[in-house]
Amino acid sequence: MSATVAPDRPRVDVIVGVHNEARPVERVTGSALASAAPVRVTVVAHNTDPNGIQRRLGVLGDDPRVRVVHLADGVRSPANAYNRGIEESTAEFLSIIGSDDEFAAGAIDAWLALADSAEADVVIAPVLRTNGGIGTTPRPRPGRRTQLDGDRDRLFERSAPLGLIRRASFPELRLTNGVLRGEDQAYALHLWFSGASVAFDPTLPPYLEHADQDDRVTRAPASLAEDFAFLDAVEGDPVFRAMAPAARRAYAAKTMRVLAIDAVLARADDSGLDEESSRALAIALERLRGWAREPDALNAREDCRLLDAAAAGPQAAAEFVRLLSARRAPGRSLSRVLPSSPWLVFHRHAPLRSLLAHRRMVRAMARARSA
Length: 371
Fold this sequence. Notes:
The chain is of the alpha/beta class. Helix content is about 40%, strand content about 15%. The chain folds into 2 domains: about 10-220, Spore Coat Polysaccharide Biosynthesis Protein SpsA, Chain A (Alpha-Beta Complex), CATH 3.90.550; about 245-370, no CATH class. The chain has helices at about 25-35, 50-55, 80-85, 105-120, 185-195, 225, 230-235, 240, 245-265, 275-290, 300-310, 315-330, 350-370, and strands at about 10-20, 40-45, 65-70, 95-100, 100-105, 120-125, 125-130, 135, 165, 200, 205-210. Strands 3-2-1-4-9-6-10 form a 7-stranded mixed beta sheet, with helices on both faces. A 4-stranded mixed beta sheet has the order 5-11-7-8. Helix 1 (about 25-35) links the parallel strand 1 and strand 2. Helix 9 (about 245-265) crosses helix 11, helix 10 (about 275-290) packs across helix 11 (about 300-310) and helix 11 (about 300-310) runs antiparallel to helix 12.
C-alpha cells in the first residue's frame, strides 16, 4: 500500500535528460507541472551548459518545483543523465521522459490513481506518437490490467521504462551507463521479472512521443557492435539469469526480430551489409541463441532468413539484397506471419498471436483517444 505523502513532498520525480539547449525542454516541463499531484521536475543538463537550459525554460525555471542539475562526463549515453536524476530523487515515484516528449493532460494523475488502486510498483504508460503512430507494447492478455506477468503478458516487449516506477521497490536500479543503445534493456528486465507488481491500462492518458526533433542521442551514428554492447549488462544481471528458459527464449527472439532487424535495416544499402557489420551481427546472434533453445523458431521465417543472410557476409550478399527487397515490398506475405517452426504457429510469442494482440491494443487505444 502506498505511504501517505506530505503535501510539501513530491509524489513524482520527473527526470528529463537534455544534451543541448535546442531541445524543447519547456514543453515536457510544463506538461509535468500541469499535474494536480505534487510533482518535481529534475532537468539534467548532460554535457551542455546548464545556463542555456535555464534560458530555454524561461519562467518555468523559476518555479520551485523545477531544478536543473549539471552533468559533465563527456560520455555519449542517455543512461548517464537519467541515472544522475535518479540519484537526486526522493519522491515516491520516478518518471523518466525524453526532452522532446511530453505528458498528455492528466496522464501523471491517472497513472498515480492506477498505482494506488492496484498497489503497483510499476505503471506502464500508454504511448501515443504525435505523427499518428501508437505504441503497442506491451500486449497483455485480454482483460488484464494489474498483476501482469513478464512472460505471459509480453511485458518484455517494452524496454523503455515509461510511466511510473516506485522508487522504494528498486532503490539500487540504474540504467546501463556508457552504452549508446539498449541502456534500458537490463533495467526493464528488473521491472518485469523481479516479482514487482506491474499495471498497465492502455485507455489512460498517454505519454506523447514527438517526432519534431532529429538529434536524439539514441539515433546518433554508431557501429552495429555498439548497438549490442548492452548484452554484457543483460548477461551479467542476476534477474536475467534467474528467468525461466521460456522467458529467456521469448526475450531472445524479441531482441532478434526488433533490435537485430532494426540494426540491419539501418545500415543496409543496395549492395548489402558491410563486412564489419556482418561480423558484429553474427557475434550478437550467436550470443542470443545461447540464451535459450532455438529462439529463432518463434520468429517469422522471413526475419530469420534475412538475419542469417546478413550475418553470412559477402558470400550471401545477393541473397540478402533479394530478401531485403522483398521485405520492403508492400503487403504481408505468409513468411512474415508463419514462424520458422510450424509447430509454433499458435505460440503466444509467435507472429500470428503477436499480430492479433497488436491489433487488439491498437483498437483499445484508438477507442480511448476518440472518447
